[in-house]
Amino acid sequence: MIENNRALAIFAHIILVLGVATIAFPLYYAFVGASLPIEEVLQVPMPLVPGDRLIENMAAAWDKGSFGRQLVNSAIMASVIAGGKIAISLLSAFAITYFRFPFRTAAFWAIFVTLMLPIEVRIVPTYEVAANALAPLAWLLQVTGIDGLLGGRLTANLQWSLLDSYVGLTLPLIASATATFLFRQFYLTIPDDLAEAAKIDGAGPMRFFRDVVLPLSTTNIAALAVILFVFGWNQYLWPLLITTDPSMTTVVVGVARLIPGPEPQPAWNVAMAGGLVALLPPVLVVLVMQHWFVKGLVDTEK
Amino acid sequence: MIGKKVVFRSRGLPLLLLAPQLLVILVFFFWPAGQAVFQAFHLADPFGQHFEYVGLENFTRLFNSPEYYDSLWATAVFSSGVAFLSLGAGLVLAAFVDHIRRGRMVYKSLVIWPYAVAPVLAGVLWLFLFHPIYGVVAFALERAGIGWNPLLDSNQAMALVVMAAAWKQVSYNFVFFLAGLQAIPRSVIEAAAIDGAGPLRRFLTIVLPLLTPTTFFLLVINLVYAFFDTFGIIHAVTHGGPGGATNILVYKVFADGFIGQDLGSSAAQSIVLMVIVVTLTVMQFRFLERKVHYA
Amino acid sequence: MIARRTLLGAAGAALLASTLTLAAGSAAAAPREVHFWYPLGGAIGDLIVKMTNDFNASQSDYKVVPQYKGSYDETFNAAVAAYRAKKHPHLLVGIGASSLNLMLSGAIYPVEDLMKDHGQKVDWSSYVQPVLNYYRTPDGKLLSLPFNSSTPIFWYNKDAFAKAGLSGPPKTWDEVGEYAGKLRQAGFDCGYTTAWQVWVNIDNYSFLQNVPVATQQNGMAGLDTEFLFNKTRVVQHIQRLQDWGKDGRFLYTGRTWQGAHGAFSGGKCAMMTESSAGFAGIQKAAKFQFAASYLPHETGVTPKNSLIGGGSIWAMAGHPKEDYAAVAAYLAFLTSTDRQIEWHKGTGYIPITKAAYEKAKAEGYYKEAPHQEVAILQLMREGATENTRAVRLGNYVQYVAAIEDELENIWANKKTAQQGLDDAVRRGNEILARFAQQNRKR
Question: Residue B1 domain-assigned?
């Protein structure tokens, strides 16, 4: 049994309260801003004590932003992205850690460098490929001469536009270097005995994956799910670019639209209230996932 | 690269497992990125009217500019600051949350939420807090007699963007550190406690080594984050000022390419930045990963 | 989606297809869709949507779909990407400073041609000329329609002036310095501050004193241009601000507008140069009497007109001819006197037709908003020269960032005004040369 150190526990609470206060302060301040009338939100500096207009401002934001449909879109986008990233990364990392094959390292690095060229830098070609996702295939057919053999009609018909669609909102963002890397890190900590035992039992790799690797990964999956859901939820530039149909846009874009410029009535309070509305679903996800965290731990170790 | 000692044998299966990920990155990353890289050797206008091969000119231009070297230095300071601060804060908070028994849920939720603030609002919030004229924290500092003017003081400006960038990443690090900590079997720690090791010693000699896979992961990710994912914060908070003090490489890439429409230069800068970070990362895998304690 | 035209069997539509001539063949066509991308959020964006809805309700042949596309930069990038994939909108609001980029892009349909080609008779001479001039080619053709235009003016805190024993606004920069000193003596933290320092203290300063910002008529006459502001009165002006900075008569509050607004509305700085569109924001926050006046000038100089800022509406090329009739009708609608007044009052931007100005004046609007008239009169000053038509230089973002950098070095006293401006010009010229190279084969 570990000693029950009261002093340390108190110290821990002090540090945590301070840390949380620092980290959550900007969020609190947004909450304050969201609850003030416009005259007060424009004071210099903005007050530190919340006002009584929160509901009103949120309603105004909801009204202006047509958030209903956008929230649904964001939820779909964030869930598909998080789920998709986790699924394909679990598999990729498994391949990279549990197999030896040519170009293993190259495959890992190919996935990894995707972190290193922000979308802002490759915006035009990325948009072009979203406007026709089959363009690379068409190019391939042309370069290899296959298209010529088929009379050149094939490439002209290879059209698949992802603009204004859920596929477009999600598929291009579904690869994940971080998730692949994280799972690789985790798999490396799984004792080799387990794989050895599975092999002796005659279990194939997929069986081992399903029965051993996946259950062990629960904590990491839960942690990642939170992070990736929020990542997907907070996407801004991509949905802004590839959707023009207002019914396909996401809530973060809707919030951005509320942010005032230099104008007669800079309604920061409404913008911040909109920000809070957009924040609620991810918060819900965090809470639900926490439940998972804890449950997983109680079952296994603590 | 490190791999498992015990591996499965198959030729086709690993490729099949990798196929979905590789297909997506081929179409949506390498295809467009290849075109972007192509532009590094060209001079072009954004609408595609004018297109001219210029060889290495976009690169030589960079290396002949004194401001570019200032930017390199700013990047080094910024990235190490962000990585250190966000990892340190994330680890301390996670360790304490793991240690305590009561209120875990509350702390956990409160640390994670800031991560969910939409980035478009986060920049605005930072100004409401820290702008020397109308930020509330600036007012408090002024009351306390501390001169605060990141608009003209380079060091303060750097401190401000480091804090803002680290703030956004603390939650992330916290989540993974906590997951890592909770995956450490209780029995290991209990054994050490029975041997008479105090809490700090236990943490340093047992917990921390067991946490190295997570730490290594987070170190790499945080550096990549600081190098590539922070231009939005810089844009909202300092615009790279004062006098270029916070004009880190990726902000320059963003400002010249996305805002300024100089695609050739922006692409050349991206390549330089990518080479720097890939080199750094490979070195981390080569040298640092040896110290990582896998099973 | 864009430029799609669906046929619809609605019989009612036939009744309404009347005045305009395009309907391809049958009268029972769905309204032709026109896409309009704009970068203005908040209340201004709401007003765009409202006016567009009014247009759509006013006739049944066309439907304009307004779409917010993020900031100016984001909207511009979205349009570039979409243009290259042939999915671009018909109309786009671009920031004034990107005019040269758009002008040379080959992707636009000059507004003057568009209106003429589609039977919209526009009397351009009834427009506020200094505003139009900014968007004209050197030979006078209007490229885009001014939309959200403003110009910087001088704001002062009347209560603070009274406290410091001052009356009326300063007219010259010498007076600004004198007033700032008195304000400091009266206990104020700072005398004068400015928003948008490059626009105000380099561009507009040069306009009012009638000195060039760059060669080739500020870039209007050719791409091979160089900055000149390290050789003009601008140097003394910046030097003066640097000196004032040392004793608090000038306070630097950041590159954009929020800092200056905070300092002014918070009662810190009693004098500010800021866009004429900043009024209501100040009004909401300031707890004192304030007023606006003309930008100061040098003693002994008869000031010229000021320079506008903001954005304009560009028509993009490459859509079916019939679509442009809809575009022309929409633009005509936006420039009608009543719409201009609605826009002017609702946003604080200046009206672009003289008729709108006259009517607003007759309605007594400038009694309640005198600052608006200051802006218009300052822009309409007679006797514009080649130094005061526009600043049309490429790679605007990069060169402004370089100038901001160097100005900050001056305010931080790391460089003298002359050194800082020399460095700004050196860096700026490299950027201009690159733009010229990028666009030379045309």
Answer: no
- From first to last of its 302 residues, what are the pLDDT tens digits of chain A? 455 678 888 899 999 999 999 888 888 898 999 999 988 888 777 888 998 999 999 998 888 877 889 999 999 999 999 999 999 999 999 999 999 998 899 999 999 999 988 888 888 889 989 988 888 888 888 888 877 777 767 777 778 899 999 999 999 999 999 999 999 999 998 999 999 999 899 888 999 999 999 998 888 898 889 889 988 998 888 999 889 888 899 998 888 888 876 665 678 889 899 988 888 888 788 777 766 655 444 444 43
Contacts of C104 in chain B (CB under 8 A): 45, 49
Alpha-carbon dihedral angle through residues A166, A167, A168, A171, given to the nearest 10 degrees: 130
User: From the candidates C68, C199, C257, which should be mutated to test the interface with A, based on the most A CB atoms within 10 A?
Assistant: C68
Domain range summary for chain C, segments of one domain joined by +: 12-150+309-367, 152-306+394-438
Residues of A with CB under 8 A from a CB of C: 38-39, 42-44, 64, 120, 123-124, 126-128, 131-132, 163-164, 236-237, 240-241, 244-246, 253, 256-267, 271
Say if residues B197 and B188 touch (Cβ distance below 8 Å). no
Q: Is C106 on the interface with B (CB under 8 A)?
A: yes
Any domain includes B119:
yes
Residue C372 φ then ψ, to 5°: -65, -40
* Secondary structure of B20-54 in HEC code, one letter for each residue: HHHHHHHHHHHHHHHHHHHHCCEEECCCCCCEEEC
C263 touches chain B (CB under 8 A): yes
Q: Are C155 and C272 spatial neighbours (Cβ–Cβ below 8 Å)? A: yes
CATH code: domain of residue B152 = 1.10.3720.10
Q: Are C156 and C271 in contact (CB under 8 A)?
A: yes
Establish whether domains C12-150+309-367 and C152-306+394-438 are of one fold: yes
With a CB cutoff of 8 Å and minimum separation 6, the contacts of A213 are: A90, A94, A187, A190
Cβ-based burial of B275 (10 A; exposed 0-12, middle 13-18, buried ≥19): exposed
In a domain, B90, yes or no: yes
Q: What residues contact C271, with CB distance under 8 A and at least 6 apart?
A: C154, C155, C156, C157, C170, C176, C179, C180, C183, C191, C192, C193
Domain count, chain B: 1
Is the preceding omega at residue B46 within 30 degrees of 0, hence cis?
no
Using a CB-CB cut-off of 8 Å, the residues of chain C touching A126 are: 81
d(CA C313, CA B72): 39
- Indicate yes or no: CB of C258 within 8 angstroms of CB of B152: no
CA distances from B195 to A9, B189, B201 (A): 21, 10, 11
DSSP lists the bridge partners of residue C68 as C38
Place of tokens 């390199």: B72
Is B15 in CB contact (< 8 Å) with chain A?
yes
Q: Give CATH for domain C152-306+394-438.
A: 3.40.190.10
* Residue B195 located in a structural domain: yes
| Chain C CB within 8 Å of residue B260 CB | yes
Cis peptide before A281 (omega within 30 of 0): no
* Dihedral, C97, C90, A256, B71 alpha carbons, nearest 10: -40
CB A114 within 8 A of CB B25: yes
Confirm if B231 and B119 have CB atoms less than 8 A apart. Answer: no
Beta-ladder partners of C93: C313
CATH second-level architecture of C12-150+309-367? Answer: 3-Layer(aba) Sandwich (3.40)
Say if B151 is an interface residue toward chain C (CB within 8 Å). Answer: yes
Domain with B194, as residue range(s), is 59-291
8 A C-beta contact, residue B95 and residue A276: no
Q: What is the ipTM of this complex?
A: 0.89
Q: Which domains does chain A have, with CATH numbers?
A: 1-65+259-276 (no CATH), 76-216 (1.10.3720.10)
